[in-house]
Amino acid sequence: MNLIKDKWSKTDIKEFQEYLYTLRNESKIEWSKNIAKTNMKVLAIKCPILRNIAKEILKSNYISFLDYMIWDYYENTIINGYIISKIKDFNIMKKYLDIYSNKADNWGTCDTLSFNIKGQEDKYLNLSKKYIKSNKPFVRRIGIVILFSFVKYDNYLDEIFNILNSFNNETEYYVNMINAWLLCECFIKHRNKTIKYLDNNNLNKFTINKAIQKCRDSYRVSKEDKKMLLKYKEIS
After folding, report:
1. Span 80-106, pLDDT tens digits
2. pLDDT tens across 4-51, in order?
3. Long-range Cβ pairs for the range 51-58 (8 Å, 24+)
4. 190 with 157: CB under 8 angstroms?
5. Is the pTM of this model over 0.85?
6. Which is nearest to 112 in space by CA: 97, 131, 125?
7. Upper half-sphere CA count for residue 216 (Cβ side, 13 Å)
8. pLDDT at 236
9. HEC secondary structure over the chain
10. Using alpha carbons only, how large is the chain's radius of gyration in Å?
11. How many C-beta atoms surround the C-beta of residue 34 within 10 A?
């Protein structure tokens, strides 16, 4: 199918959905649905294929594609998320991300997002802070996903640690898990400052224990540090 359009129409979208359906992997559908933990229909199309589809759509009028915000299949969300992540204009990106985030019902839809925040750090940080206050767990997860783009910047570490502390009473599994991933990334990229944070943190037990586990599972963490991190483990 030709995915480069001057303007997407309802007919194009119908054809696109039919095209996606032809790419389904019947033998993997139930397995994929179980992994994604989504209520949406799943076609079990591999992520590299979905990214290539999104890249083709991005070559032309991708905004007219997003205006339909198709949500029939889990795979639609991955394609939409990849496109939204590539929008350079913050206000336009936010318009579609607000719609997208409020429909998210699974971790994959959140984690496909990856933002280029350079030159717009304050806008993205404020958006993250807004999302983490949501009563919807997957909106909160997206708020944390945004922070992954800040980890490489040393001057935003304290902000990240303060935000992590604010989740002390978080009970949602998928929010605590993404927080653990974030803390693991902080340790890998900023070992010494993260150790100082661990010495005086306000994390909940689940998050700190999962973060330690992820560090210990990582090839980017030394054997010595894997052993050292055990002292921060919270025991029931």
Report:
1. 999 999 999 999 999 999 999 999 999
2. 999 999 999 999 999 999 999 999 999 999 999 999 999 999 999 999
3. 51/82, 53/3, 53/79, 54/78, 54/79, 54/82, 54/83, 54/86, 55/82, 56/3, 56/4, 57/3, 57/4, 57/5, 57/83, 58/83, 58/86
4. yes
5. yes
6. 97
7. 14
8. 52
9. CCCCCCCCCHHHHHHHHHHHHHCCCHHHHHHHHHHHCCCCECCCCCHHHHHHHHHHHCCCCHHHHHCCCCCCEHHHHHHHHHHHHCCCCHHHHHHHHHHHHHHCCCHHHHHCCCCCCCCCHHHHHHHHHHHCCCCCHHHHHHHHHHHHHHCCCHHHHHHHHHHHHCCCCCCCHHHHHHHHHHHHHHHHHCHHHHHHHHHCCCCCHHHHHHHHHHHHHCCCCCHHHHHHHHHHCCCC
10. 19
11. 10
Token look-up 């997957």 returns 138
Sequence letter at residue 146:
I
What's the token pair of residue 2? Answer: 């030709």
